[in-house]
Amino acid sequence: MLLDWISLFLRWFHVVAGVAWIGASFYFIWLDNNLRSPPEWKKQKGIKGDLWAVHGGGFYEVSKYEYGPEVIPEKLHWFKWEAYTTWISGFLLLSLVYYHGAAIYLIDSSVMDLTPAQAITRGLGLIFGGLFIYEAACRSPLAKYPKVFGIMFLILIAAASYLATHWFSGRGAFMHVGALIGTIMVGNVFFKIMPAQRLMVDAVTNKTDINPNWGLGAKLRSVHNNYLTLPLLFIMISNHYPMTYQHQNAWLVLMALGIVSAWIRHYFNLKHIGISRPSILITGAMGMIIIAGWVSMPVTVKEDISTIEKAPAIALNAQQEEVFDVMQTHCANCHSAKPTDEIFVIAPLGLMFDTWSQIVQRAPLIHRRAVVTKDMPMMNKTGMTEDERQIIGKWFKGL
């Protein structure tokens, strides 16, 4: 129960920090795109563009300098901790749920039979290896060719998605691709945006020239983050929708949704600079409908339950047989390779209890949800009795 509370507060904090970071990112991209050429007297003071806005009962004037003000003000607001706290809380949450609970949430023996140590090592390698490749590409001549760089980035995310979905459970795979994207985004802040801003502040303070490339490079990384935001937000909520991460081509589903959502974001970025392209929204909506239709088509499950290990095929003692019977009666109607429930046509959270080995692998989760919190089966629609819950409880205590 303590871990559940820790998970709740971490997740809550992560969402709050993420809202702050995404809000600031969206606002500053909007602000920069909506700046207009200022009056001549402002240009003489070094102001590149300004904007007037009304909000919260007041008028605001925002100005952006071409290079920098004559003097650094006493109070200068920096925007970095929104990004850092989002990443730190997210990594702690990833560690608690998917690394501490690797056997339950990260490892799927039907995908690849890994030990927790092997799964965690691959997960960390995927995240930080991907960050290294991205950062190296940004610092290479490749960055001078936006279209080529964009293709390279798509290949990087596609490779990460393919590897993750062939290493981990569906949920674990999607979360690790999201962790990679989030790490790249915070890396942009840490490795490029903040250093560039420190150089600019130092130059103004010391009355030295400001290199225009500092600001241009930092803004480019901000734009990268802007386009990655919607794909990342989808991944954050994807664990509620197993039809995406449990699809037999889940990595393609992830890539398709990511590309379409970034394309839709492109419409708003163009809109901010006065370019209206309704065709982007139309094609984006069509893309989402096509993806939904594709994902909803009947597919062949990865594992045929007629050939997998069933209770009679292995030696179970009397207690284990009781537990297996309870699970088949009350849980496997939803949590199965072929659910019989009229609502859940795909196993919720990707959890399947068709075999004894699958039940043993998820034993802590089953005990917590069926015996401790008693919120499963959902609304107790199958009528699990207290005695049946205690059968699971006694078995779990003896493990």
Please indicate the percent range of residues in DSSP E strands (runs of 2 or more). under 5%
* Cross-sheet strand order for the largest sheet: 1-2
The total domain count is 3
Count all strands and give the number.
2
Computed Rg: 26 Å
Q: What distance lies between the first and last C-alpha atoms, to the nearest angstrom?
A: 19 Å
Number of helices: 15
Question: What order do the SSEs take from the amino end to the carboxyl end, as H and E?
Answer: HHEEHHHHHHHHHHHHH
What is the overall pLDDT average?
90
Described by strand count, sense and barrel closure, the largest sheet is:
2 strands, antiparallel
SSE class: mainly alpha
* Helix content percent band: 55-70%
Q: In terms of per-residue confidence, which ranges show pLDDT below 50 for 5 or more consecutive residues?
A: 301-312
Give the overall shape, derived from the CA principal axes.
Answer: elongated
